[in-house]
Design a protein that fits this description.
The complex is a heterodimer. Chain A is α+β, with helices and mostly antiparallel strands. Helix content of chain A is about 35%, strand content about 15%. A two-stranded antiparallel ribbon of chain A has the order 1-2. Chain A is elongated and about 60 Å long. The relative contact order of chain A is 0.16. By secondary structure, chain B is an alpha/beta fold. Chain B is about 40% helix and about 15% strand. Chain B is built from 14 helices and eight strands. The chains are: A alpha+beta, B alpha/beta. At the A-B interface, helix 2 of A face helix 7 and helix 10 of B.
């Protein structure tokens, strides 16, 4: 912390207000359903699983919420058991606009 | 026509019980017949805050199960004869409360009092949803702090979904009561301001209770702050809030504790 920032310390209340506004905008929509990620995960895995074999333990689903847009990140490791490809694994990634239920 | 009011918050420790006691006493002080009902089955505390912990014989659950008649379970306040308390059970768990049981007691209390004030337990589970179930109005107690504001938002959503009024397409009147407000800290930008909280929760303001030593002092003594020290800032804020509940138009202020010469000199009150 510089000497300057000591004197010009901005209150933490504006940060609290902004964090709350982003969080509550999300929680008030259907996206606030605590089961959304679980549902998305299952449906995406079912869709991908129809075409390739997936190890359910090697799947990560993450949501990063921002003020204007949220990013849903799905990493699925696809083992190359049947037909070895040049790459060890392929990854699929999808992005969703904020607050749109699956 | 009696009004059923739930005092709720989602988050624990924000002042639901303190506010129930203070508002109940304030309404009784202006001539209203008031019963305050503890819905926190298993963790009752309204009796303690009211100084009636040694007078509890029967409780809410006893009445719903027919072990006691309602008048036997009601404890009349010794200081205010218009104020009564219906204690929660300390030995049962929250599943002992049923919707039918709560409805029958609330219906009976409506005939006996002008105000039925329900002190909700924290959380969003059975106890909290039953406390708000039959409410006409809700007082949402919020501290100017992120977790409290978030939980209040959740509770406001439940009030619009899980109450009998909401299911009938009617609305539950909602009032925000901001407690433990520290004006100097808010002015320095260290605490969410009243405007911040109102903007986020978009709910009409019932009152602003300043952070005050008098609140703890009153609960130590088992007396609502509006009775124990009516001149304190917190008590005046609660009294104003009670009058606003009655429909009076009272200017919104944040009353401060009056400090004596020595208090001003040393920056704190002597106990």
């Amino acid at each position: 912390m510089s000497l300057f920032s000591l004197f010009k310390r901005r209150g933490s209340a504006p940060v609290a207000r902004d964090r709350l506004q982003i969080l509550l905008a999300y929680e008030r929509t259907a996206g606030g359903s605590p089961d959304l990620l679980v549902i998305l995960r299952e449906e995406i895995l079912t869709a991908v699983g129809r075409h390739v074999e997936i190890d359910p333990d090697r799947v990560t689903v993450q949501m990063n919420r921002g003020a204007k847009v949220s990013i849903l990140e799905v990493d699925i490791e696809i083992p190359n058991a049947v037909r070895p490809a040049p790459n060890a694994s392929r990854r699929k990634r999808s992005a969703l606009p904020a607050h749109r239920p699956a | 026509m009696a009004k059923v009011v739930v005092v709720t918050s989602g988050k624990g420790g924000v002042g639901k019980t303190t506010s129930t006691a203070a508002l109940g006493a304030a309404l009784a002080q202006i001539g209203q017949n008031v019963v305050i009902v503890d819905f926190d089955v298993g963790l009752r505390n309204l009796d303690l805050v009211m100084g009636a912990e040694r007078r509890v014989v029967y409780d809410f659950i006893n009445v719903t199960q027919g072990v006691a008649k309602l008048p036997q379970a009601l404890i009349r306040d010794k200081r205010l004869d218009r104020l009564a308390l219906l204690p929660a059970s300390q030995t049962r768990d929250k599943d002992a409360l049923t919707e039918e049981g709560v409805l029958s007691v609330i219906t009976a209390l409506r005939k006996m009092f002008d105000w039925v004030i329900c002190d909700s337990p924290a959380g969003i589970e059975r106890g909290a949803t039953l406390a708000m179930r039959f409410a006409d109005e809700a007082i949402i107690v919020t501290n100017p702090e992120v977790s409290s504001v978030r939980d209040s938002d959740r509770i406001i959503g439940l009030l619009d979904a899980k109450t009998v009024r909401a299911e009938r397409g009617e609305r539950v009147g909602k009032h925000l009561l901001i407690t433990r407000y520290d004006q100097p800290r808010a002015a320095r930008g260290e605490m969410l301001s009243i405007d911040d909280v109102l903007e986020i929760l978009s709910t009409p303001l019932l009152g602003i209770i300043p952070e005050s030593e008098e609140v703890l002092r009153a609960s130590n003594l088992g007396s609502p702050v509006t009775l124990n020290n009516p001149d304190s800032g917190a008590a005046r804020a609660y009294s104003d809030a009670a009058r606003r509940l009655m429909g009076e138009d009272i200017e919104m202020t944040i009353p401060a504790d009056k400090q004596g010469f020595l208090g001003k000199l040393f920056g704190r009150r002597a106990a």
